[in-house]
Design brief:
This protein folds into two domains: about 60 residues, no CATH class; about 45 residues. The protein is about 40% helix and about 15% strand. The protein is built from three helices and three strands. The longest helix has about 35 residues.
Length: about 140
C-alpha cells in the first residue's frame, strides 16, 4: 500500500521553486510538502504550489481518505507522441515545433519593433505638420 501525506504550509519547502505536480511554470509559492511511499519503505518527497495542494486536499475532503486511485490514460495526441514522456524531475521538455514557434514569435516581435522604430520619424513629422508646428521639410538646407 502506498501512503500519501500532504503537509500543508510546510516551512521546509519554502525555498523550492518548482512544483512537483505542475512543474516549473508555477507562479505561486511552493507551500505544501508531499510525501509518497510505503510505510517502512522508501519514500519520495516533493514540494507543491498552493493550488496543487488545494486540489489534493479538496479531493480527500470530498471523497474521504480511503482512496485507491487509478489513472486511465486517454488517447494520446500527436503532440504528446512527438514530445515524448516527461523527464523524471517533471519538467516539461518543449518539442521541436514549440521551440521553432517560440523563435518565430521572437522574430515577429523584433520585426514589429524595427518597423515601429523606422516609422517613428515619419509619424513625428506628420504630427508636427498637422499641428502647424513644422513647415515643409526640404531635402536641401536653406539659408537666410
Amino acid at each position: 500500500m502506498v501512503l500519501i501525506i500532504l503537509r500543508r504550509d510546510a516551512p521546509e519547502v519554502a525555498t523550492l521553486r518548482v512544483c512537483g505536480l505542475c512543474g516549473p511554470a508555477v507562479t505561486t509559492p511552493i507551500r505544501d510538502h508531499l510525501l509518497v511511499g510505503s510505510p517502512g519503505g522508501g519514500k519520495q518527497e516533493t514540494g507543491l504550489c498552493g493550488p496543487c495542494g488545494d486540489v489534493l486536499d479538496r479531493m480527500v475532503q470530498t471523497y474521504g481518505s480511503d482512496l485507491s486511485v487509478i489513472i486511465q490514460a486517454g488517447q494520446a495526441s500527436a503532440e504528446n507522441l512527438v514530445s515524448g514522456p516527461r523527464k523524471p524531475d517533471d519538467t516539461v521538455v518543449p518539442t521541436e515545433r514549440e521551440r521553432a514557434a517560440a523563435v518565430l514569435e521572437d522574430v515577429a516581435e523584433a520585426r514589429q519593433q524595427a518597423v515601429r522604430g523606422a516609422e517613428a520619424p515619419e509619424r513625428a513629422e506628420r504630427a508636427l505638420k498637422q499641428t502647424g508646428q513644422l513647415a515643409e521639410v526640404h531635402d536641401e538646407p536653406t539659408f537666410c
